[in-house]
Design a protein that fits this description.
About 70% of the residues lie in helices and about 0% in strands. The chain is an all-alpha fold and about 450 residues long. The chain folds into two domains: about 200 residues, no CATH class; about 190 residues, no CATH class. Helix 3 packs across helix 5. It is globular, with a radius of gyration of 20 Å. The chain starts with 8 loop residues before the first helix and ends in a 12-residue tail after the last helix.
Amino acid sequence: MATTTALPRKKIQSRNKVSQDIPDIPQRTRELFLYAISLFSLLTGFFFNSPKEILDGLLRIQLSPSVLLSDFMEIGNIGAAFVNSALMMLLYTRVAKRSGTLVSGPLMASLLTIGGFAFFGKNLYNSIPIVTGVFLHAKYRREPFGKFILPAFFGTAVGPIVSQISFGFVLPHTGSMILGIAAGLFAGFILPPLASQFIRFHQGYSLYNMGFTGGIVGMLFMSIMRAFALENNREVLLLKESSSYLMAYLLLLFSGMVLFGVSHDRNWPKRLLHLFKKPGQLVSDFTASDGFSVTVLNMGLLGFLSLGYLYLAGGTLNGPVFGGIFTVVGFGAFGKHVKNVIPVMAGVYLSNFVFHWEVSSISSLLAALFATNLAPIAGAYGILPGLLAGFIHMAVVMNVGDLHGGMNLYNNGFSGGFVAAILVPILDALNINKYTWEEDL
């Protein structure tokens, strides 16, 4: 994930009273917050299934081709999916700490995205080669791995490249696993320079920059595979019977976030309103500009908003929907807030009454959740452009998946990159007023 120029921290503090006296939440507390989410998921897993069932389910998850859409709650079981998510978050939180990376908004977004997609596509087997490939890139450049931690973590979007080559084709298992891991290492190695270039394509108005990058890399690998007459079996596997306890888990998680934010910052109403004024364009670290406590509060509110949309649309909870909600919540630390995501969600919702998709279908639900990667358009240009972005995204996302054959888990990020690249120049050319939050500082 590339970075863009941001205002100096001291300059923000000196000009903005709201940003002064932000409660100092120590790094240790921030780390414990991430560990707490992981442990909550781990314990929840054992509530659903026995240890033996979870181990058997985890094995099935690791051996799955993992292309879109592969619901690990169905492939393994609900408990195994929760444990897979917990193990992924625990591992990569530890990796971030060992690399010397501080807990910031971008890191929180990357870890919750990993935790969310560990319900439908990411696992230890297919993520480690990608992260290792980025690590090798850092070593080749003779730079600290911590500098590339975001491309490494977000880059696990192309994990299906590893799993599909290893287990998805009719190839000898030993040879295919070696080939799959090698492909993952190569994909990870080339991700950082590509991500830093592609952010210019959409100018930071798509928050899922690695989704666009992953789409290009996935398209490259899929093209090579198709040249060898190898095609993915993109069977959609979804949880057949949902559980009310899944909703209970999310309600407890988001309630805890809201309570944490409110209890750790007495000025949370004023600071939250200040956060809502930001457009969210990359790179917007809300923990730096508005504090860790209010950021966590914003994340919790986004979680409740996501559940509200799910209820309105008549959808059900499963692995992919869990992943979508987790990602929305994670980016509540890195560009999204209630004010800038609602127009985009509304645009997707309204598009269902024009197009031929059902609002409660899995494709429509995921589009609504993940289309919020275009929230900066609503934040910067206003409600109507945000509605338009969501509307167009719904049409585009249904047509780009075949390009990468499910090799990129962030398909909506791939679509969002195109939508932002198309809309932003047009909005600028029409002199649509661009809102700059620096004016409020």
